[in-house]
Amino acid sequence: MTPYLSHHRQLLEGFLEQFWGYYRELLAYREAPSSVEALRLSARFDLLFATVTHYVPLDGTIAKTRDKKDSLLKVLAHPEIEPHNNPAELRARARVRKRDVSFGPRTPDCARAWDTFMCLAESVKKLGLSFYDYVHDRIPGANLIPRLDALLTERDATMRLSPSWINS
């Protein structure tokens, strides 16, 4: 959205200022969650995204965001998750960059191999391991590094998930 009229730019800037203030409140909520604060933030979302500016592109974006409230405010029920999807977006971009550089996989088998290795590389990286070391441990069958399922099970046990995940 690129407003050309100064009035529209001011409307956009004013809304963005309120939006980023609200986002900072969501980040603060993650540090000290409470049911009272969750209710307040939910009501604040409703108020913020009920805004009507009469700048049609901005009002349309506000309405689209309002319609996604449940998925956008999952952080209120699960404060341990990020209130954004940047990691998912970055992973998708990595796949697109690889496709652009190599002109894409040539066969369906190649596409599956790409996806498998990119997923493996990302999983190993998240566990703090070197993908190179992991592959060079697996190919000759040295198995000095534990299997991914064992590493993931171990990591799950150390994660501090809130009780809200039990009934999700």
Structural summary, described in words:
The chain is mainly alpha-helical. The longest helix is centred in the first third of the chain and has 26 residues, at 6-31. The chain contains nine helices and no strands.
List keywords for this structure.
68% helix, mainly alpha, 168 residues, 2 domains
N/C terminus separation: 36 Å
Supply Rg. Answer: 22 Å
**Helices and strands: which structural class?**
mainly alpha
Number of strands: 0
Unreliably modeled segments? none
Order of helices and strands: HHHHHHHHH
What form results from the Cα inertia axes? flat
Helical fraction: 55-70%
The amount of beta strand, in percent, is under 5%
* Count of DSSP H/I helices: 9
Give the total of domains: 2
The overall pLDDT, averaged over residues, is 85
The biggest sheet amounts to:
none
Compact description:
By secondary structure, the chain is mostly helical. It has helices at residues 6-31, 35-48, 56-67, 69-72, 74-77, 86-102, 108-126, 131-138, 148-158. The chain is built from 9 helices and no strands.
